[in-house]
Specification:
It contains three helices and five strands. The longest helix is centred in the first third of the chain and has 18 residues. It has one domain: Lambda Exonuclease, Chain A (Alpha-Beta Complex). Helix 1 packs across helix 2. 28% of the residues are buried. By secondary structure, it is an alpha+beta fold. Strand 1 and strand 2 form a beta hairpin. It is 38% helix and 34% strand.
Length: 122
């Protein structure tokens, strides 16, 4: 079975690894977000940060949120710079996918010496 957006997520993860290897752990999330944007665009990918997205319930907007990074209008990246990813972080990304009808999300944590990431499909 072919993974949804497999090639794209592999490129994104490669960019995340570049950022992690070059910067290491210990910076604020916003630093990693800006560095990742550079790494993604250097790979020829269309990427945007702090993308405003609407949460819709029964065809009515009930809230707004900002996706940390949206790549090729297909993959939402939720960035963290924490000691460990928790279930609340996973729930946040899953809710973002549900709210936007995007199919693929990556939860990426730059808070450890070794990059931590999880892939989600909705």
């Amino acid at each position: 079975m072919e993974l949804l957006e497999k090639d794209l997520t592999e490129k994104i993860i490669a960019a995340c690894l570049e950022v992690s290897n070059e910067l290491g752990a210990g910076f604020l999330e916003s630093v990693y977000e800006r560095a990742l944007l550079i790494a993604l665009t250097d790979k020829g990918l269309k990427a945007e940060t702090q993308v405003p997205l609407k949460v819709v319930f029964r065809n009515r907007v009930v809230g707004d949120f900002y996706a940390d990074t949206l790549v090729e209008n297909l993959v939402i990246i939720e960035l963290k710079a924490v000691k460990s990813i928790g279930t609340e972080n996973e729930a946040q990304l899953i809710n973002y996918l549900k709210a936007t009808n995007k199919r693929v999300g990556l939860l990426v944590n730059f808070g450890k010496p070794k990059l931590e990431w999880k892939r989600f499909v909705y």
